[in-house]
Write a structure and sequence with these properties.
The chain is α/β, with parallel strands linked by helices. 36% of the residues lie in helices and 16% in strands. The protein folds into 2 domains: 243 residues, no CATH class; 81 residues, Arc Repressor Mutant, subunit A (Orthogonal Bundle), CATH 1.10.10.10. The strands form 3 sheets. Strands 8-7-6-1-2-5-12 form a 7-stranded mixed beta sheet. Helix 6 links the parallel strand 6 and strand 7.
Length: 346
């Protein structure tokens, strides 16, 4: 089987290729570093030799790069020897980003040992995004990541490479990963020379304490509970020009939802627990505003906070995508998403 590598892509192809070069070198070397990187890869009933192999790339980039516009050239890359950041000729002048990437992967991927020996092609999925439209970028990223992990044709292990690409796409990848909880790994690489197409770790240092090329990032899963959302939607339903709702009235309104209190594990009279476990986290995130009463806590007032408008937009996207999710990447038929296949040498 293998791994689906998700990544943003700008004009520098080294952000993609150097990571795969490094994985191949570590994989062939074996040892503790390889065990740490690949021990959780793929289903347990598959042979060790297939774990961690690249099954496909899923790249997020601009229309110009995805559609191979002839005037959109890549940054020249250094055809370095693995383990060095100084040797090798500069190449890629007057090549488009896609042409340069396909040329390097087609020639090198099998030699790096990152694809099964019997495979002669590699699938590359392209997702277009617009840098000035972060909400749209998040929707597309969330849609694609969910489809890759859906039960169906390609319910795959996903690794997220945050080295290249724009802040907009990397932010969308991280946020979608947090909401979905589906990616197995988030990482970036620290190349001594970002233009190098292979890793730059000196061979004697590979896999040692001196090897700082690969940086794993923790995945923080976001569970935006239905309890908190119920409170926010109740507050948001009040007109902006109306009097702020009192704590007593808000508590009373929510008591109508029997499911709310059973899920929260609260009794209707558990007012202080409600205040501490439900309202306080929302206040901390500026999702609600709190106006304390000097006389009685039950007369404290609340209104929807400034941060809710933005959060509501993202939750609406998640709801929209969740209504009819794609069952695999091959089921996504949108003008901003396409699959291509490249031939591999060797």
């Amino acid at each position: 089987m293998g791994v689906y590598h998700f990544a943003g892509l700008g004009k520098s192809i080294g952000a993609i290729t150097s990571a795969l070069s490094y994985l191949g070198a570590i994989r062939q070397q074996g040892g503790e570093k390889a065990e740490a990187l690949f021990s959780l890869s793929d289903e347990q009933d598959h042979a060790d030799e297939s774990r961690g192999m690249v099954q496909a790339l899923v790249l997020f980039t601009t229309e110009e790069i995805a559609r191979d516009h002839r005037s959109f050239f890549c940054e020249p890359y250094q055809d370095n020897r693995a383990g060095s950041d100084r040797d090798g000729r500069k190449k890629g002048e007057n090549l488009t980003v896609k042409t340069a990437l396909y040329r390097v992967l087609g020639k090198e991927l099998k030699g790096w040992g990152m694809i099964m020996p019997d495979k002669t092609t590699l699938d590359v999925y392209w997702c277009e995004h617009e840098r000035q439209r972060p909400l749209e970028t998040f929707e597309r990223t969330y849609t694609v990541l969910q489809a890759a992990k859906a039960m169906g044709e390609v319910g795959k292990e996903c690794w997220i490479n945050l080295t290249g690409g724009s802040n907009v796409i990397n932010g969308a990848l991280q946020l979608a990963t947090s909401f979905l909880g589906t990616a197995a790994r988030q990482y970036y690489v620290l190349s001594k020379n970002p233009s190098c197409i292979r890793h730059t770790v000196p061979i004697p240092d590979l896999g040692s304490e001196q090897d700082d090329f690969w940086v794993n990032l923790p995945i923080v899963y976001t569970d935006f509970s239905s309890l908190h959302r119920t409170v926010l939607e109740e507050l948001a339903s009040w007109p902006n020009d109306s009097e702020h709702i009192t704590h007593q009235r808000l508590h009373g309104q929510l008591c109508q939802y029997a499911e709310f209190y059973s899920l929260a594990g609260l009794k209707k009279e558990g007012d202080e627990i409600f205040r501490r476990t439900i309202l306080q986290p929302l206040r901390s995130q500026r999702l609600i505003e709190h106006f304390p009463s000097k006389q009685d806590k039950s007369l404290d007032r609340y209104k929807i906070g400034a941060a809710w408008e933005q959060m509501e937009q993202y939750l609406a996207i998640i709801d929209k995508v969740g209504v009819t999710p794609y069952q695999s990447l091959s089921h996504i038929h949108e003008d901003w998403f396409r699959k291509e296949t490249i031939e591999l040498e060797g």
